[in-house]
Structures are given as C-alpha cells and as structure tokens.
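Q: Could you fold this chain for me?
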Amino acid sequence: MASPQLTEEQKSSYRWVMAAVCGLLMTTSFISLSSFGILSKSIAETFGLNSSSVTVLGVDSFSIGLFIAFFLGHGGIFDTRMRTGVLVAQIFLIVPQFLIPVSYNLFLLVALRFFQGLMIMMLAIFSLQLEGWFRPSERARSLAFTLGAIMLGSAAGGILSGVLSKLSWQEDYYITGIVMIAGAVVYFIFARNSSTQIEMLKKERSEKHPSAWRNPLTWLMGISQIPVTWTLFSMGGFLPSYSLYLGYSHIETDYVIIVWGFSGFIAAFIGAYLGDRRSRNTESNREVLRGRLQIMTAADALMGIGALLMILTASVSYYAIVVAAVINGFLMMFPPNYWALPGNIFPSAIIGAGAFGMGLISNSADAIGPLVSSLLRSHWDAVFIIMAAVALAGIIVNIYISHANLRLPEGYE
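A: Sure. Below is the predicted structure, expressed as structure tokens.
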C-alpha cells in the first residue's frame, strides 16, 4: 500500500512549533492538578474547615469537571473552530484561579474547582488539531508534548508550591494564575489550524455520516483508557495525602510529586517513540491499531506494578515510594498512542466526534476514580489494589480490541 500523501502542513517544520506550544499550554494548565492537593491544608485553615474535607471536595469536584468536559464538544462543535474551543477551556481554568483566593466559601470553592476541570476538553481538541499537522507515523510524538505535559504540569505544581512556600496560598494562586495566562498568550500567538484539514472537515461534514456513537470502537477505545484516567487523576489528587500519611515531610512529599510528574513526562515520549516506530511502514490502519495497543498494554502493566509497590514498599523507605512513583508514572506511555488513533479508526467526518466520544467514556473514571479513592482514604491498601485491578482489566480490553474483527477505514487518513 502506498504511503499516505502528505499535506503542506505535514511537510512543514512549523509542525513542531505547534506541538511545543500545545504542550506548553497543557503544562501551565495542569499546574492546577497537583498544586491544590499540596495547598489544601492552608486553604482549609483559611476556611476554618477540616483539611481532609477540603482536599476531598476540591479534588473530587475537579475530577467530575474532567468528565463533564467531554460533553462540551462531543457533537463536533469545535471541529473547525479549534482555537475557539481552546479559548473556552482556558476561560474555565483561569477565571476560577483568580476567584478561588477571594471566595471564602466552601460551596463556591467546589464550583470553581469543577469549572477548572472542564479545561481537559483541550485533549480532544489538540488530538484533532495536531492531526492536521503530523503524518500518521509522527502523531504520537506530537501528542507526547501535550499529554506528557499533564504530568509535567503536575510536577510544576509541586515545584511552584515549594518555591512559593514562604508566600500565602492566595499569593501562590495569583502567581500560578499569571503563569497560566502566559501559557495561553504564547499559544494564541503561535498556534494555527491546518487549512488543508479545515477544508477537508468542512467538506466531509456537509455529507451525511453515521453517528460516532454507533461505531463500536468509540465505546471499546473509551473503555480501554478508563484504567489510566482512574489512576492518573487519583494519583495526581491524592499522592500528596498518601505520602504525608506515611510520615514523609512536606518537602519530601513535594519531591515525590515532582518525580512522579517528570517520570510521566519522559514516559510519554518513550511511549510515543515506540508507538510511532511500530506504526512506521505498516500497510493498514489495523496494523497501526495493533502496534499502538501493544505499547498501551505495556503502560497498563507498569501502572499496575507501580500501584502494587505503593502498598508493598512505599512505607519501607522514602526511596521506595519514589521508585513506586516512577514506575507508576510510566502509565503515560498510554495516552500519546491512544490519542494518536482517532485518525486511524474513524472516517474523516467523525474523527472529532469520535475523539470526544472516546474521551467522554474514558474520562468517566475522572469522576469515579478520585471519588472512590477519597472514600477509601482510611484504607489506602484498597485504593491501590483497585488501581492494580483496573490496570489488569485494561490489559484484557486491549487484547480483545487487538484481535476483534472491527471495521476500520481503509489505509491511512
């Protein structure tokens, strides 16, 4: 089969600028994931409330927002207006960042954290936007910038909290809010849509096509990422609490978050490289799917091993919890390959709707995972056993998809 014909954007070196600015924006956005967990004790003191309650409600409301976010674009409303979609997501993130320090009301705090979680809709938008710039054999590497940035942003949240530790939590929020604005400004200065892709999408959408919800792959792929989202956002929200529970200091806890974040960032590029390598010189979309599923399965296995080590060794020594965090962080080999697949498994006209559908299903775990973890925080072993169990379930689903006789688009997009 002939190689896919490349567009002018896919030949341009500017495509790497696009990947970098999308990654930068995700990094500044996801500072909000871990920084709240680190600052929650100080926030609780200001509110005159129990620290545990503030942590749980703040993390859970953010996580529910992560799930609801994919309702906002699953109908394809941002397919040809990607920068508009990113703008909406950034408003949801940045405005609450400046309102939370002056809210002084628990219910308002919960609502604002929920709105911040809606910014994750950028994942599906970037998956579509970068597809217009990158050939199939480079898509995972392009997405590694944005998906690895989830973990890099978590690490940045830990670093900023340490650097700004002598300031009040309100000042910390204002400074990180300014960092978020800077990231958004850089994105909107440099980000461009692929004109070739936009023209193709407009043409395809003018024709009648079946709903993405009738495609079995929307459901199967959505289910396959549930274990990763369950663990990723549970760890991001509650790993600081677990580290403190084991008796490690606040400084040591900050470093655990930083190490976990950086390991995930590196893992995203490793997984992307391996997935792109498996996709190179393939002759069909089915081979691309199977190759990326192999890397995704390895990520599930490492994620489960890291969760088990949290139970078995994390209390033994500080170095043991660091090792467990690093291994668990390799779950990030999964997302770049996952979000590189919509163009290989959906017809062109429903790529955007399919990506949002996958995200909606998989990110149901954003709401459920942290909620279950918060309810079981007095039984930490159960928290991590469940993470290991869902990792095993993910491996089984990946194997099924790899061998199932599913209808895919012919050749490459």
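A (continued): The longest helix spans residues 250-279.
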